[in-house]
Automatic annotation (TrEMBL):
Name of the protein in question: DHRS7 reductase
Species whose genome carries this gene: Asarcornis scutulata
Gene3D superfamilies documented for this protein: NAD(P)-binding Rossmann-like Domain (3.40.50.720)
Superkingdom as given in the UniProt entry: Eukaryota
Record has tRNA-binding as a keyword: no
PANTHER family reported in the protein's UniProt record: DEHYDROGENASE/REDUCTASE SDR FAMILY MEMBER 7-RELATED, DEHYDROGENASE_REDUCTASE SDR FAMILY MEMBER 7
Length: 230
């Protein structure tokens, strides 16, 4: 049994809308006023997608980028200003293995995660004068969560009818633990996944021609299952 030493003053919960970028500065200032500093920012807001590109309205892609990408870098901008003043801090961004590879039915989601990967890898190179500020990208594979129930579909008004079984996915607490280990050790990038998804990451990174062949075979079956409602 672990006994926590936290008091009410050690906890502050703020409602935040990543798409309401005008509210991010005030939210950041509220946290700093309460705690006096921000040591770690964990960017963990976002929605996934389940739809074929040719069936999907473009405003879905706009909404994905607005939430997953622009909302994240907006909040980061305000927090990073404070961290630069202190010359220390950690910015942890939950990307995805989809930021490393491509996959059918998730073209917009993959695009937003690729955007985050490119942005934070570039930002890291702009912070060489601040060695105590860490940029950490976390790339989980399938993890048990409610992300599937809340995915974007082919239009903004439609929700996913069948979220499927999640028992094969990594337990949430294990993903959290590995994320914390990665953060404590200042890993620039961590792939957090079980096999076979982790093996596909390595293929995509080091043998992309094989990865494209494999993804085409897997993707065809995935699309067939999606159309069949599985």
């Amino acid at each position: 049994l672990e006994i926590s030493n936290l008091t009410e003053k050690d906890i502050l919960v703020l409602r935040l809308d990543l798409t309401d970028r005008s509210s991010h500065e005030a939210a950041t200032n509220s946290v700093i006023k309460h705690f006096g500093k921000i040591d770690v920012l964990v960017n963990n807001g976002g929605r996934s997608q389940r739809s074929l590109f040719m069936d999907t309205n473009l405003d879905v892609y706009s909404a994905i980028m607005e939430l997953n990408y622009l909302g994240t870098i907006s909040l980061t901008k305000h927090v990073l200003k404070h961290m630069i003043e202190r010359k220390r801090g950690k910015i942890v961004t939950v990307s995805s293995v989809m930021g490393i590879m491509g996959a059918p039915l998730a073209s917009g989601y993959c695009a937003s995660k690729h955007a985050l990967q490119g942005f934070f890898n570039s930002l890291r190179t702009e912070l060489t004068d601040y060695p105590e500020i860490s940029i950490i990208n976390i790339c989980p594979g399938p993890v048990q969560s409610k992300i599937i129930q809340n995915v974007f579909t082919e239009n903004l008004a439609k929700s996913l009818e069948n979220s499927g079984d999640q028992s094969h996915k990594m337990p949430t607490d294990r993903c959290v633990r590995l994320t914390l280990v990665s953060t404590a050790n200042d890993l620039k990038e961590a792939w957090i996944s079980d096999h076979p998804y982790l093996a596909v990451c390595y293929l995509w990174q080091y043998a992309p021609t094989w990865a494209w062949w494999l993804m085409n075979r897997m993707g065809k079956r995935r699309i067939q299952n999606f159309k069949s409602g599985v």
